[in-house]
Amino acid sequence: MQQPSPRAPPSHSAYGSTSTNGNSAAGPSNGAAAASTSRGREGSDEHKARPRVLFMGPRSGGKSSIRKVVFERMAPNDTLFIEKTAKSTADDINSFISIQMWDLPGGQLDPGAWNLAFEDMDAVIFVLDAQSTFNDMIRKLAVTMQKAFDANAGIQFEIFLHKIDGMSEDYRLDTLQNLRDRLTEELFDISPDLESSMNVFYHLTSVFDTSIYEALSKVIQKLIPEQAMLERLLDLLCQQCSMDKAFLFDTSSKIYIATDSSPLDNQTYVICSDYIDLIGDFALLYEPSPLGSPFHSRSPSTGSRSNTLAPMSRMDSSAVLPSSPTAPRRATSADAGRLAKGARMPSSKVKLSTGATIAQWGINNNLSLVALLRPHMMEQHAALIDYNVSTFREAVLAIFDLHLGQGEE
Amino acid sequence: MSSKSRKKVLLMGKSGSGKTSMRSIIFRNQLAADTRRLGATIDVESSQIKFLGGLRLDLWDCGGQDSFMDSHLTSQSSTIFRSVHSLIYIFDAESPDLTSSDTHYFLKCLGALRDQNPINSDTVVESAGGADPAEGEEAEGQGPTVFILLHKMDLVPEAQQSSKLAEFEADVTKRATESGWKGNLKFYGTSIWNETLYKAWSIVIAHLMPSLSSLRSHLSHFLELSSASEVVLFERTTFLVISSVTAPSEAEDAEDWDKRRFERISTMVKAFKLGCTRIRSPFSSLTLSSPNYTAVLDTLTPETYILVLARNTIQPAAIELNIRLARPHFGKLEAIGMSK
Ligand SMILES: Nc1nc2c(ncn2[C@@H]2O[C@H](COP(=O)(O)OP(=O)(O)OP(=O)(O)O)[C@@H](O)[C@H]2O)c(=O)[nH]1
Ligand SMILES: Nc1nc2c(ncn2[C@@H]2O[C@H](COP(=O)(O)OP(=O)(O)OP(=O)(O)O)[C@@H](O)[C@H]2O)c(=O)[nH]1
Ligand SMILES: [Mg+2]
Ligand SMILES: [Mg+2]
């Protein structure tokens, strides 16, 4: 078996500089970071990486439902009662990654009418109802895509073929293929090289299962310049701690902003996201005050950032180390200072009868690391794993230029 | 097997009110969404459920279509209503006939229950409220207990739920009394879509279980020994709450804890357990540290799980150890030990 070993924490400044100055960054993140600078974002300090996303599509396609289910934790069944969107609304996804999402009224395919411009957007999500006949929409969609592309050649097009619940697997794929062929044709008709130079991605989604979270995760990962570096850190962590899979979750939305590079199967994502739900809901039972809980952002309100300092102010010197007493003393005492700092972040684990463990660690108030560990690793190497995780935590916070327990304002 | 540990429970109510749905969610690990595919129950489906402490539940799910109801009440009457321990009667909160034909059938069932259990027709004395699953044991040996579930409450707008239940309770109680029923009736609002189902069934099960008070004192002792803030005991397969103890020292803080926390834990953990089973890695235990608390949920006896919640100055590993040490002791207790 592979022995995980502690590693030196990356120096704060080395990682911190990458996010402020993408061009000079060494390492695998170069591509992504450069993309962000090319959009001219690196100048503004606070919102340097604040991707903006536009939701568009025909009436009743499900745009508002997606927003509410994913970001406001509305029960999927309750989306039935959502009213038609009458005006454009911006959602500030004020969690770790701050994203601005614009929900346009249905049928509206010109953001200009709402004082929005494609130039300012990083991605456009077109939501199409798979259960309706969307054929006559496709031409309009192609025209809009051309407009957007002319205004902003770097823009990312994400087509959500939505409401696929209740459709058979074959039928889903047929419908998607049909949509793809038609749209490609239309774009080709407008201009032959338009289609080939655009970034178009397709997703099958539904608010009734995890597909919508997975699709949004993929969309958002492309917009986070730090993503490649996070992936590398996760790869390293997986290797050191014998993890089969590790996700960095935005805790309140269950979107994962990064995962290690090993192949992802849907079941693993489902169980990990169910687990995030379980512990988030559980914590609320005994910590009713939103101040104490890192999961308070689950409640249907977005303006929660002001609370993020609260857990820090509750620190007391008697806080315990997260490592179990059966773990080797050496590792814990050697680095007590650092670990104690991490000890205030919540953590949890669920043991499975196969011996494997799903474990979760709070990274800050908005981010959680969730990992699937190989059988018995957690019992045998608890201290080392905790050590590596706290190093990982520091590296992540350094990447985003944040400090433990602080908001990013 | 003594007749005392064998208890007959009737599940009645009109067709489509949700009897089979409840039974399959609580006892057969079905998902709420999958109950949409259930067909109507023909005649009676009876199932035997082995519960902890040697308790054997004879659950009779009685088909609710009018023709079946009529035969339950006439030709089958003695088979069905004789030596019943509890009747669980389910009303569909959205039924248009709630106060007419639905109640009408219910009153007939009460009549049959009384006729078939004549010796026990005196009042079943029970304190109202029923928030504590440990109560109700004194009803042992007395007449059948009647639980009334106003079900599918999810379809009633939230603001109207409690007034609807209160009105319904007053109306049915009045008519039952007028019809000559002297026993107590216990009312709960339930839905398969939230924790209310677990709340009601935890109370039903606690009512069926002998010697819960002795179990409770053992739990109190464990709570003290491990300096915990709260301990909760769950039945393994149904994940219903069997008993719980909160430390007196936490009385003040406990005011802020979620009042529905036990049934919510049942619901949440059971759903997660099903997810684990689906990926062929059954759930074993959960350990959690939050800013103020440490919680461990682990197997206590082969038929129970225990949740131990403590202030986070206590190490999770210490709780895990305490649970391990307590296992042999709890395994020997008659109340929750293995049924022979
Ligand atoms: N079956 C199914 N229905 C969905 C799904 N997502 C949304 N819906 C339903 O689609 C309907 C319309 O949803 P909205 O979110 O209001 O659609 P919209 O795109 O915001 O509509 P406008 O604001 O009018 O443009 C609602 O009745 C939702 O319940 C899904 O994934 N599956
Ligand atoms: N909305 C809602 N639907 C429910 C609830 N409980 C059950 N149902 C639905 O009600 C329908 C009928 O449920 P059953 O359990 O088959 O009804 P039953 O009482 O066994 O009916 P019979 O066997 O004919 O007597 C199913 O489609 C369930 O999904 C609930 O709490 N809320
Ligand atoms: Mg809308
Ligand atoms: Mg039935």
TrEMBL record, chain A:
Keyword list, A-Z: GTP-binding, Hydrolase, Membrane, Nucleotide-binding
Biased segments, Low complexity type: 19-38
Pfam family, one: Gtr1_RagA
GO biological process: cellular response to starvation; negative regulation of autophagy; positive regulation of TORC1 signaling
Family stated for the protein in its record: Belongs to the GTR/RAG GTP-binding protein family.
Subunit structure: Component of the GSE complex.
Function statement: GTPase involved in activation of the TORC1 signaling pathway, which promotes growth and represses autophagy in nutrient-rich conditions.
Name of the molecule in the record: GTP-binding protein
Lineage start: Eukaryota, Fungi, Dikarya, Basidiomycota, Pucciniomycotina
TrEMBL record, chain B:
Molecular functions per Gene Ontology: GTP binding; GTPase activity
Residues forming coiled coils: none
Keyword list, A-Z: GTP-binding, Nucleotide-binding
Gene Ontology terms: cellular component: fungal-type vacuole membrane; Gtr1-Gtr2 GTPase complex; nucleus
GO biological process: cellular response to starvation; negative regulation of autophagy; positive regulation of TORC1 signaling
Keyword Nucleotide-binding: yes
InterPro entries from the UniProt entry: Gtr1_RagA, P-loop_NTPase
Protein name: GTP-binding protein
